[in-house]
Write a structure and sequence with these properties.
The chain is α/β, with parallel strands linked by helices and 424 residues long. The protein folds into 2 domains: 175 residues, Alpha-Beta Barrel (TIM Barrel), CATH 3.20.20; 131 residues, Lyase, Ornithine Decarboxylase, Chain A, domain 1, CATH 2.40.37.10. Helices cover 32% and strands 22% of the residues. The strands form 3 sheets. Strands 1, 12, 13, 14, 15, 16, 17, 18 and 19 form a 9-stranded mixed β-sheet that branches. It has an 8-stranded parallel barrel with strand order 2-3-4-5-6-9-10-11, surrounded by 5 helices. Strand 4, helix 5 and strand 5 form a beta-alpha-beta unit. The radius of gyration is 23 Å and the shape is globular. The relative contact order is 0.15.
Length: 424
């Protein structure tokens, strides 16, 4: 079973100061998880976790991870700015990237990870001269398969270079006086198996040996990217990062060490695994509806958590204060958008829900708040840090109507709109 990291009483006290809905994050859980990751890869002296900022782009959460030793994986200008604010090592792994973003990434010292062979000349033209360190993103094509079957289909992904392009890319970079090289690959998403990283690592380690044989380039680092998932379902067994790290070490010693590549650093770029289980969306039941199905309407909607609407993704739900009650009612738990897919749960067995009950939606610490949008003019919620000493700290206020309208300041009626805001 999944257990909330706050009680009903704590949630009610927080809601008195910061009305629902809100996202809340467990500082203790995030710190302990980062320490486990470092322990799992401590055998590699150059190891670094580059937290995927897209998962949770809040500088307070980023600072916690940075304090525990993480760098940052960025994919846009604003993510680069957040990483610069917090400090630490930065990896810039974008695609279809404007020249000004490459220039900014280079200016702040980020390692640039190129997604396509043609981007080599594009980067040179943008910067004038190549950085001393460049990484290339790899796509082996076909399907990515492990012992339990096909995990994903890289051949359908828009990311990365073919093997032949990768080889030509390293030759070209060497001719352009680049002196430090890396490879990067992301071949499967949200894998809940300890086999993924070791299998990916083995493939990339063998590729590294081939790269040196065919191009003369010895890689400085190999970036396993993300893809290590979390158990959204309550009966799923989660990944064991210590087992995963040991599996990667075994591949390292079997493949790279005999080839004379024992100094290669291992990088990861996890987001979901780093913060996903340590965040929750807390919302309140405000309506019920009894027609062909039983509905519970809450004050959150897909603006606050769009994964169920977008992917049909499962997020476990706890009715705070009713953890021990029988799940003998079947509900659709829904939000207020004018879209029928605005549902956090469909035909979900839950305890009887009464108006005013607090609903705790699990595992929203990655790709929860960050995927929010503004459809129907809905406003994004507050973000709160539940600190190690049990305090609730506001780390992002809830949006207000004036935030939603702020980019209309180019219109002649903007002053009238401001007057309407004052009257509301």
């Amino acid at each position: 079973m999944k257990t909330p990291f706050i009680t009903k009483e704590q949630a009610e006290r927080i809601a008195e100061q910061y009305p629902t809905p809100f996202h809340i994050y467990d500082e203790k859980g995030i710190r302990e998880n980062m320490r486990r990751v470092k322990k799992a890869f401590a055998w590699n002296p150059g190891f670094r976790e580059y937290f995927a900022v897209k998962a949770e782009p809040n500088p307070v959460i980023m600072k916690i991870l940075h304090e525990e030793g993480a760098g940052f994986d960025c994919s846009s200008l604003t993510e680069l700015m957040l990483a610069k604010l917090v400090g630490g090592e930065i990896m810039f792994s974008s695609n279809e990237t404007p020249a000004q973003e490459y220039r900014y990434a280079d200016r702040i010292g980020a390692v640039i990870n190129l997604d396509d062979f043609t981007h080599i000349d594009y980067l040179k033209n943008a910067l004038g001269e190549m950085p001393k360190t460049v990484s290339l993103r790899y796509n082996p094509g076909g399907v990515f398969q492990m012992s339990n079957g096909i995990m994903d289909n890289p051949g359908d992904a828009k990311y990365g270079m073919t093997t032949e392009q990768l080889m030509d890319g390293f030759r070209k970079l060497k001719d352009m006086n680049v002196t430090s090289f890396g490879i990067h690959a992301f071949l499967a998403s949200n894998t809940v198996t300890n086999e993924y990283y070791p299998k990916l690592a083995g493939d990339l380690f063998r590729l590294a040996v081939r790269i040196r044989q065919e191009t003369g380039v010895s890689l400085s680092f190999i970036n396993l990217s993300g893809g290590v998932g979390i158990p959204y379902q309550p009966d799923q067994e989660g990944n064991d990062i210590l087992v995963i790290g040991e599996g990667v070490r075994e591949q390292f010693e079997q493949i790279l060490v005999p080839a004379g590549l024992k100094d290669v650093s291992i990088y990861t770029e996890m987001g979901r695994f780093m913060t996903g289980p340590y965040g929750a969306l807390v919302t309140r039941a405000i309506h019920e509806k009894h027609i062909y199905k039983e509905y519970i309407g809450v004050d959150a909607c897909a603006v606050n958590l769009m994964r169920p609407a977008m992917y049909g993704a499962y997020h476990h739900i706890t009715v705070l204060g009713k953890e021990a009650a029988a799940c003998d009612h079947i509900y659709d738990v829904v939000g207020s958008l004018c879209e029928n897919n605005d549902k956090f749960a469909v035909d979900r067995k839950l305890p009887q829900i009464e108006i005013g009950d607090l609903i705790y939606i699990h595992d929203t610490g990655a790709h929860g708040f960050s995927m929010g949008y503004s459809y129907n003019g809905k406003l994004k919620s507050a973000e709160i840090l539940f600190t190690e000493d049990g305090e609730a700290r506001l780390i992002r206020r809830a949006e207000r109507p004036e935030d939603y309208f702020s980019t209309l300041d180019v219109l002649p009626d903007y002053e009238k709109l401001k007057e309407i805001l004052r009257e509301a």
